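#structure-requests
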Amino acid sequence: MRIPVIFTISILAAFASCKKYVDIVPKGKIIPQETRDYRLLLNNTNKLLPGYGTQEVMTDNIDYSSDPGLEDILGFTTAAIFSFQDKIYQDNSDVSEWNNMYSEIYVANVVINEVMSSTGGSQQEKNYLLGEALTLRAHNYWALVNIWAKAYDAATAAADPGVPLVLQADLQANLVRKPVADVYAQIIKDLEQAASLLPATAANNYIPSKASAFAMLCRTRLMMRDYDNAEKMADSTLKYRNALFDLNTIAANPRSLPLYISHPEVIYLRQAGNAYATMFLSQDLLNLLGTQDLRRVLFTADGKTTLNYNGVTYYGEFIDFRTRNTGPTVPEIMLVKAECLARKNDKDGAVTLMNQIRQKRFKPLEYQAVAASDATQALNMVLDERRRELFCTTARFFDLKRLSKEPALAKTVTHLYKNTTYTLPPDSKLYVFPIPPRVLEIGPGIVPNER
């Protein structure tokens, strides 16, 4: 059954049904028919819906033990995630991260299903909109399957439960979990088609370009531990977007940092779901950053000064009250390529890419090029550089989950919360988040995750 989509700002809750997904039915005044209507639909979705982000709390980047008062202000879910509890959502609760991503998928499906038959637009305009919607859908499924399903394993992906894979704009669709392999296959299919349709450049970083599709393919292949293809997708991305931003240019005035919408490093701008969450940083991460790294100087702050709690807090989003970007960036893709090079014993190639980034992250007199004695050291150095470059973007959660499949790189995370030590081993089932309670309640065909 085709359900006409009616949209204003409220369409951003569009993946909605009183019986199926969330408890809001879309309302508005305009039924999209002309090509320009689908542009407005995507523009609203691109700019306003936050996605994932709380998963960072689970990593070795975060520490709430620096101040007892800080521990007391954490919400139920944040505290439960940080202390590695089986139950992280309250009974009968909705989960905004899940709801928002499926809302975006619904909007993407509307465009994918309908835009090519819309009126008043050129073939090129329709192709661009289709490519944008495919990228939007793929990005959300990439996040959903990597949060609510097991880490990709080629040996088990065909049997491991993934997430509901909804490809039609049908508010009454019956939800069932598709295997991880099926979800990944759809992500790759969407992104490959998007890359063939999208332009080389876009009006701003919210709107996908070819580089955005290739960057998400790069992320996808990385999570599959398909390092040969991850490197190829990194090269394809960097062909279109390769600019690095020199942090020295804003050292004297951090508020002059370019907005993410036009930042030269941001390939595809996506909002974190908890933009202003209290992110206090672990000593492990601070030791890794050191004291001279401009990423620490500019993007962290004394917690006592900013929020009146002891410790060091992530301050990046408070520079001009922007939300955290969880979408791919140029340095992230460079580091994917560096990791792939290290894995095939090209230590010098890996270190060269890493040094290109680091040169933009230190004052000239404090910068020192790094070197690796062998490929194993180079790989570990690149993974450390990913932590420095991408802290508080949720990348660390996905890395810990991915690397848990490799004993030499797997890590046990330890958190201290209210004088009790909690540990998260690499093979923990807790890396697979529980299906939200409301989804289980209204979707009896959905199998819950073991915790």
